[in-house]
Amino acid sequence: MSNKYAGGCDHIHTHSNNEPIDIHTCHCSVCKGVTGQDTTHVVFFNHGDLKVDNLDGLKRQPFNAKNQDGPLELCTCSDCGTPIMLDDKEGRIRVIVPNLMGYDSESLPATYHAFYDESAGAPAPDDGRPVYEGLRPDFVWPEPA
Ligand SMILES: [Zn+2]
Ligand SMILES: [Zn+2]
C-alpha cells in the first residue's frame, strides 16, 4: 500500500492521499529566514488530508519568530530535528516544503509565485507563471477541521 504523497523522517511519517489545495513558490521573508533559500516551494494541504503518524514526536515552534502568536507552527522531529510540516493552530491547513520535508518536489509543481515584493530587490520571476504580491487572489482558506 503506498500513499500518493509521503514524506517525513525516520521517526515521523506524513502522507496525503488527496491533492493539495495550493502549490506556490513563496518569496516572503519568513520563509527565507526559516529555510535559508531565496524562494521556497510551498504546498498547502487541507488540514485533515495530511496525516501524521507520530504527533507526539513533534517539536513545535512559531513559524514566524516575529509573530509568536501567529497561527502557523513549524513542527520539527524532536529526535533528529528534521522539519516535518507547518501546522495551523486554527486547523485549516498543513504545509509541506517538499525538498526539506522528504517529499518528491517534481510531483508537486508550483503553479504561481506568491508574496513577490519588487521593493526587496530580487529579480522578477520570468518562468511564465503568474506572480502575485500575496497568495493567488482566488485562494480560499478552508474551514477549520
Ligand atoms: Zn513564505
Ligand atoms: Zn526524525
Notes on the protein architecture:
The protein has a seven-stranded mixed sheet. A three-stranded antiparallel sheet has the order 1-2-5, with no helix packed on it. Helices cover 5% and strands 32% of the residues. It starts with a strand and ends in a 31-residue tail after the last strand. With 145 residues, the chain is mainly beta. It has one helix at residues 29-35; strands spanning 5-8, 13-16, 22-26, 40-46, 51-52, 58-62, 72-77, 83-88, 93-96, 112-114. The chain has one domain (5-120): Alpha-Beta Complex (glutathione-dependent formaldehyde- activating enzyme (gfa)), CATH 3.90.1590. The model has no long low-confidence stretch (mean pLDDT 96). Bound molecules: zinc ion (ZN) (2 copies). The site of one zinc ion (ZN) has 6 residues, from helix 1.
Brief write-up:
Helix content is 5%, strand content 32%. With 145 residues, it is mainly beta.
Jot down its keywords.
145 residues, mainly beta, glutathione-dependent formaldehyde- activating enzyme (gfa), 7-stranded mixed beta sheet, 3-stranded antiparallel beta sheet, 32% strand, globular, binds zinc ion
